[in-house]
Structure formats: C-alpha cells, structure tokens
C-alpha cells in the first residue's frame, strides 16, 4: 500500500511538473515572437538619413561653440564694441558681449556720443 501511494505521489508530481514546463515553454515562445516582431519593426523604421542629419548639425554646433569659446582678441572686442555702440548698446551690453570693463565700455560710448 505504501508503495502504491509513493508511486501515485511521484506520478502526480511528474504530471504537475510536465504541465508547468509546458506552460512556461508556451510563454517563452510567445515572448520570442514578440521580441522578433519588435526587432523587425525597429529594423524597418530606422534609416541613416536622420542620423547623418544629426551628426551634421552636431558638427556645426561644435564649430560654433568653438568660435564662441575662443577669447576675442583685444582689437576685435574693441571693434565689436564700437559696432554695438553704433547700434545703440548700453554699458551693460558692452561689458557682457565684449568682455570690456565698465570704464572701457563708458569710454567707447563717450567716443560715439554726438558732439554738441
């Protein structure tokens, strides 16, 4: 009697494990199908054109940033300050844009002021 109960218990355990493995195998297949479908969608929608456009734009921005980061030569900042003064910039704008001291900005504005 104990032998039959042991065999029955092992048989039930093996059946349960088989059902569980079958269920996990089916889920695994479904997941693989979904992953394959996602990869196909991703491969179908990607092109090199937007990437190349982004790389080109990034290169332009890096060049512009390099030009902005380079300190202006003193003569160039004075010329820029004179031009900005002609266009109506105030002392604060000259200091911020050209890297001049307040006294230098005031002097440039005084040189550009109309004589009365």
Can you describe this structure?
The chain is mainly α and 116 residues long. The protein contains five helices and no strands. The chain has helices spanning 2-45, 48-69, 74-86, 91-98, 102-112. It starts with a helix and ends with a helix.
Quickly describe the structure.
The chain is mostly helical and 116 residues long.
Notable features of this structure?
116 residues, mainly alpha, 5 helices, 84% helix
Helix/sheet category: mainly alpha
Q: Topology as H/E string?
A: HHHHH
Largest sheet: none
Low-confidence stretches: none
Mean pLDDT level: 84
What share of residues are in beta strands?
under 5%
User: Helix proportion of residues, in percent?
Assistant: over 70%
Shape: rod-shaped
DSSP E strands, number: 0
Give the end-to-end Cα distance, rounded to a whole number of Å. 126 Å
Rg, rounded, reads 38 Å
Task: Describe the secondary structure blueprint for this structure.
Elements (H helix, E strand, L loop, with lengths): L1 H44 L2 H22 L4 H13 L4 H8 L3 H11 L4
Helix pairs in contact: 3-4, 3-5, 4-5
